[in-house]
Amino acid sequence: MKCTLCPRQCGADRSLQPGFCGLGEEILIARIAPHLWEEPPISGSHGTGAVFFSGCTLRCVYCQNGDISHRNEGRPFTPRELSDALKRLTDLGVHTLSFITGTPFVPRILEALELWHPPLPLVWNTSGYETVDTLRRLEGVIDVYLPDLKHFSARAGRLCAAAPDYFAVTSAAIKEMCRQTGAPVYDENGIMLRGTLVRHLILPGFTSESLRLLTWVRDELPAGVPVSLMRQYIPCNDVSVPGLDRRITEKEYSRVRDHMIALDLPGFLQEPDSADRDFIPLFNRDESFV
Ligand code: SF4
């Protein structure tokens, strides 16, 4: 069957050969473990049970997790094995369960959740580059959307991810996510039970893009949608785009942060010491799996 799960719409028959994402039909996973470093409403004090799927449909040149997003490292899982892993994560006392870049596996993830539906908020952690059709398959299943919002101009989308349509596609996708979840709902510990939380990673030399994206959030998304402003950019993955070979400066960060404050957007500002390779999880080792 031709795959049209993501906006690449490459139409590959993945039972015969991989598509743009490099993935066949089988679920591939690089890490299943509690993860403490997401935003407080996702990780809380005990962490989110994070499932890092291998592969990515966006594949930004600067990806901080290139071993899994570009090189598809990971181990095969059946829906039953994924379902069993979700139970083990839940038994560890995590607050939420996170599916990270799961788009190429949506039908199989839904199979796993039909075998056992966890009693925790389910989080869809995504590059934001999603089709509305695929998101509609997740409606009523996913409780919390955690999309990135990365590039505003077609030029940046093309340079950074060979996706000049990134903003057109992602802005429509995030509006669909907000439609599905409504306004954020939190429990007594501040864990998000339902809602959409938009992430933005500041890129060196691209702060004008950041300002335009934040203004779009204020103008186009429902009031109260939180934004997580991330400053963790580290040159990774042998990035070839000129200018992306450095960290962001304090001045660049302040410019974007001040704009977010001026817009009165609710959300989170990342700590300065987060731009460290120690925060990149270990993938595809025996200890990477609960
Ligand atoms: S998920 Fe992969 S195979 Fe399917 S349309 Fe996207 S890139 Fe192509």
- Biggest sheet, in brief? 8 strands, mixed
CATH topology: TIM Barrel
Helix content estimate = 25-40%
Question: Which strand-content bin applies to the residues?
Answer: 15-25%
Runs in which pLDDT lies below 50 for 5 or more consecutive residues are none
Strand order of the largest sheet: 3-1-2-4-5-6-8-7
CATH class: Alpha Beta
What does the overall shape look like? globular
Q: What compounds sit in this structure?
A: iron/sulfur cluster
Sequence of secondary-structure elements: EHEHEHEHEHEHHEEEHEHE
CATH architecture name: Alpha-Beta Barrel
Q: Indicate the radius of gyration in whole angstroms.
A: 18 Å
Whole-number total of structural domains: 1
Mean pLDDT: 95
Which key features would you list for this structure?
three-stranded parallel sheet, Radical SAM protein, 290 residues, single chain, globular, TIM Barrel, 31% helix
Q: How would you describe the overall organization of this protein?
A:
β9, α8 and β10 form a beta-alpha-beta unit. This protein has one domain: Aldolase class I (TIM Barrel, Alpha-Beta Barrel). The mean pLDDT is 95. The chain contains nine helices and eleven strands. α3 (79-91) crosses α4 (106-115) and α8 (207-220) packs parallel to α9 (250-263). The chain is 31% helix and 17% strand. It starts with 26 loop residues before the first strand and ends in a 21-residue tail after the last strand. The protein is globular, with a radius of gyration of 18 Å. The longest helix has 16 residues, at 166-181. With 290 residues, the chain is of the alpha/beta class. Iron/sulfur cluster binds at residues 3-6, 8-10, 12, 14, 19-21, 23, 57, 104. It comes from Aristaeella hokkaidonensis. This is Radical SAM protein.
